[in-house]
Structures are given as structure tokens and as C-alpha cells.
Amino acid sequence: MASLRGRVGRCVVLSVWLGIVLLAAGSPQAAYGQSVTGTITTGTYPAAEAVNPVTDKVYVANANSNSVTVIDGATNAVASTVSVGTNPAAVAVNPVTDEVYVANFGSNTVTVIDGATNAVASTVSVGTNPEAVAVNPVTDQVYVADKNSNTVTVIDGAKNTVASTVTVGTNPEHVAVNPVTDQVYVANFSSSGTVTVIDGATNTVASTVTVGLYPDAMVVNPLTDQVYVANSNSNSVTVIDGATNTVASTVAVGNAPDAVVVNPVTDQVYVANYSSGNVSVIDGSTDTVSSTVAVGTAPDAIAVNPVTDEVYAANLFSGTVTVIDGATNAASTVSVGSQPEAVAVNPVTDKVYVANYSSRNVTVIDGATNATSTVTVGSEPDAVAVNPVTDQVYIANQNPGSSGAVTVTIANLLMGYKRSYRLGRWATSEGIVVPGRKKARSRKEKRPGSN
Questions:
Q1: Separation between Cα atoms, residue 156 and residue 163, nearest integer Å
Q2: Would you say residue 449 lies in a domain?
Q3: How many domains does the chain have?
Q4: What residue numbers bound the domain in which 105 lies?
């Protein structure tokens, strides 16, 4: 049965991937334009959101309301408000099984929501203060990082029961899954500086890899089976060879690296160095820095479009986004709003969405021309998610506006294609490359040892 589930999972994941490829290679869409198509009242302090592109539903975890708002992407209406545990901090979707996993930081539980009925299917007790959750859609296993018990709880998605509790390092905060190799990587955010590697087949620790101080972001390249760990207090990136679970290289980068992204098509890795105001470009074939690109002040978020080979670094205190041409590493600067906090790319439409925390708007960048437009959203937009299948964008506005309501803004951003894409260039999708969610320590929380 497990083998059958694995085969079905692979087929569904590949089907979603192929659909995105075909959309990117398809005929041009309608004319350039954008509008806010809905503003939906959610619970208090929407802290995380996840999109299921298969069912066109969006799940918003409301940290201070102990609920998840389910948005129907077809109607832009609230389909349901689901009561979960205390202080939900993270949410993940398995598009194969249509189940949603909500990590409740305050009640030490994971709420499982049945996506078909929007009902709670199960409440699973986990470790202390679960802060991150990741799903392997191929094996239907769920991995929950329990920050203050130094464990990862493994949930069997078929039964919604605990399959195993794995002891890891101190303060596990990020989880990344490689569904191709069935390996799970857990970044332990502490001065001990380790990454725990869990063998998904046995739910045992395959290796504990020593990395730098306070690993703050992590990404997997499933095509090369390499893992890149940004060590915020060591000014380095540790490269882990997934085949041997050993350190392949330690690459010196800029100061306080706290975001990392990989383009699996070109095998280039981009590291946003918060304190030195630059991006280190690592050549994945040699594990050396091929270029250091000057950007704005405090680059705190970074995204890549593997179709166009362009990289977008959001500079928190410059009010800009630096656009890096992946082929030449040449850079251009695009002015956006105040305190750009999050950036997301739709590779199908070649559009980039930047959530500007202080100016309460989203800047839309046309990837073909770098022209911009601005969409007014709610108060303190702090996260942005894209459904490339429907071309809907969801922006979580964390604090109440003048009405006292906390909202999610839905933007229907219909853009015309400016170039044609070759079939086969898109080589990644959500569920294949799963970077750990990076919290915005830069503005809201000082790093340990920082001045």
C-alpha cells in the first residue's frame, strides 16, 4: 500500500509540475492590468498561509485567534473558519491527499484539516512549541519541528498518528524535505550549529552535520542532491552532500546571511547577506562564490524565477528590489514601497509580488520590463503567496486597520506575456524544493550575539 501511495504521489506531483510547465510555455494571456478582487476578514495576526493549487484553496493560520481561515480561490470567499490549537504558527498542505497540517505553537499539537470537508480530521499531540511543518507528498509523511523539546515529530499522513519522535539538535526551527531521496533536513538554530538529517524510510537520524552558528535558512536542490545552509552568525553557507550527508564545502559569504534560494536549472545559489548589503552567488558545480552583487540595505528576502533566470532581492531598509540577471550577475534596481518584507514570483506570468510592510501596499514587478504598479492592501502586509495555476495572489495583513479587521487581500493580477518560454526549462515546483520558512528576525527580533 505504501508503494502504491508513493507511486500515486509521484504522479500527482509530476502532473502539477507539468501543468505549470505547459502554462509557462502556453499562448499569451490577456492584456496587462491588475486589481484587488477581494479583501477577506480573517482572524487576528495571520502568521502563515499555504496554497493548494490543485483545489484552489488557501489556508491562513491566525496566530492570535486560534483558527485557520479557508479561502475558496474560485469565489474569493471564506469557505470556512476552522478552530485549531493555541497560537498556530505554521501551515502546510499535501496536495496529493488534500490534507492540511497546522502546527499549534502554544498547545503542542498539530491540527489536521480535511481539505474536502474543511473539518478537523484529527488533533495530534507533538513536542513542545511546534514552529515549522513540512510535508513529503510522495510518502505522505509530515515532519514537525518541536522547537523547545529539540525533537521532530513524524506524522503518518495515512493514519494521522505519530509514527516517530526523533531527537535532533537545539532549537529546531527549519525543516526541508527532499522527496526524491526521502531525506529530511532540520536546521537547529543555536550556537551549536548543526543540521540533523533524518532518513524518511526509517525515521532515524542518518547524520548530524556540524555547520556554522545559528543556521537561519536552508534550501535543497533535488537535482544535485545538495543542501545549502545559511549560517547567520558565521557569515558562511554550509554545503551538505545529500548522498553522503557530509559537509561538501563551507563557503564564506557576506555578513549575516539569512535567506537563500537555489535555481535548480542553472545550479546557482543566491544568498542574501543582511548586514553587508549584498548577495553572494555560489556556483553549485564548484561550491565557490562566482560573484558578489551589491544590493540595497538589509536584503531580507530573496526569490528566483527559474524560467527567466532572474533573481529578486528585497532590501528592507532601502525601499527597493534588486533584480539580478542570473546569466551575467548584472544588477538593476527597482523602487518599491517602504520596508519590503516578502517577495514571491509567479514563473508562469513572469510577475513578481513585493509586500511592503510600512507603506501597506504590494508592488507588482513585470519581469520582462521591470516596470511596476502598486496595489493598496491592508495594514502591515507581511507575507505573500502565489497560486501560479489560477494567477491569484494572497497577501496576509498582520495588524488591524482603521476598521479593526485583520484581512487577507486577494489580487487578481492579469498580465500579458512578454516573451516565449522553451518547454522544459521549468524544473522545480513547490513540493520539490522546500526551503524552510525564515522568520523576519531582522526587524522584529535581534539575532543572538548581534549589536
A1: 6
A2: no
A3: 1
A4: 2-444
